[in-house]
Amino acid sequence: MLPFSHFNLLTANRYFCAPKKGQMKRIGEYRKLFGTEEASTLKELKTSYRNLVKEWHPDKFRDGDEKAEEAEVMSRKIIDGYKFLVSIAPETKTANVAAFELTTTQAGIADYLHKGVLLEISFLDGNTYEFFGVPRNVFLKFHNSDKQVRFAKRNIYGSYMHRLAKRADEQEEG
Length: 174
Prior knowledge:
The chain is α+β, with helices and mostly antiparallel strands.
């Protein structure tokens, strides 16, 4: 199968996912679940995570209890939310800035996918980054650009919140 970037724009329109209510809503929901704000530290996030896990741990409920299924769903949501919020935390981004710059300046773009306002870019070094809040018009300019790497460097990498979605070594294991 050809990479997404090889389809013409009319064909590519079939592969756009219908815009969900936005990735920014996902961030807001997780922050609300954890009772944290944008400026929360990793320590505050971890404390909130531990308290939520204690409250919703599935082993707290007996099999057959009506809350057991809800606890299972909530515990998965709590774990996913924690991993997600840690990945976009300022402290995490600061610690990973060198790796981000290395990937975005040295590795070419292998593939990409735009879903709603989320742009997922996979790089030739095996890393995949998600960029939040990228509107369709910016994505279309990126998609139609004859120099996508240059366009992304100038208009996407420094302009939108991002997180490392998949590390190169994680993809090899899976």
